[in-house]
UniProtKB/TrEMBL annotation:
Component of the Sec protein translocase complex. Heterotrimer consisting of SecY, SecE and SecG subunits. The heterotrimers can form oligomers, although 1 heterotrimer is thought to be able to translocate proteins. Interacts with the ribosome. Interacts with SecDF, and other proteins may be involved. Interacts with SecA. It comes from the Bacteria. Keywords: Cell membrane, Membrane, Protein transport, Translocation, Transmembrane, Transmembrane helix, Transport. The keyword Repressor does not apply. PANTHER family: PROTEIN TRANSLOCASE SUBUNIT SECE. HAMAP family: SecE. Belongs to the SecE/SEC61-gamma family. It is found in: Membrane. InterPro entries: SecE_bac, SecE_sf, Translocase_SecE/Sec61-g. The chain crosses the membrane at residues 18-36, 42-68, 89-109. Gene3D superfamilies: Preprotein translocase secy subunit. This is Protein translocase subunit SecE. Essential subunit of the Sec protein translocation channel SecYEG. Clamps together the 2 halves of SecY. May contact the channel plug during translocation.
Amino acid sequence: MSNQSVQTVSTSNDKIKVALAIVAAIAGVVGFYYLADKPALARAGVLVAGLAIAAVILWTSTTGREFLNFAKESVRETKKVVWPTRREASQITGIVFAFVLIMALFLWGTDKTLEFLLYDVILGIRK
């Protein structure tokens, strides 16, 4: 049984639509900064309009629809996740903090032991 995925080739129409969507989004951002002396509502309107036009153009392409399906599936998968309760999350956090504290003490002790051995015992240098 083969588990190879089939990949569709984008047509040049889809590539043009994606490029136009990118241009529209960039135009919205540039317009937002270009209208720096205008009221904030007008600037925000230009930005939202550019992004909305980009979204509509992208939605009409195969790539955009595939992305939308991917986003929907992602949301569906996150709803399947069993999240820990507050108590479980607190316990796990406490265990992590305890482990970090123990590891820090171990590394500090190892460092001081090696420092003592190297400077005092082997080299005979006192600080």
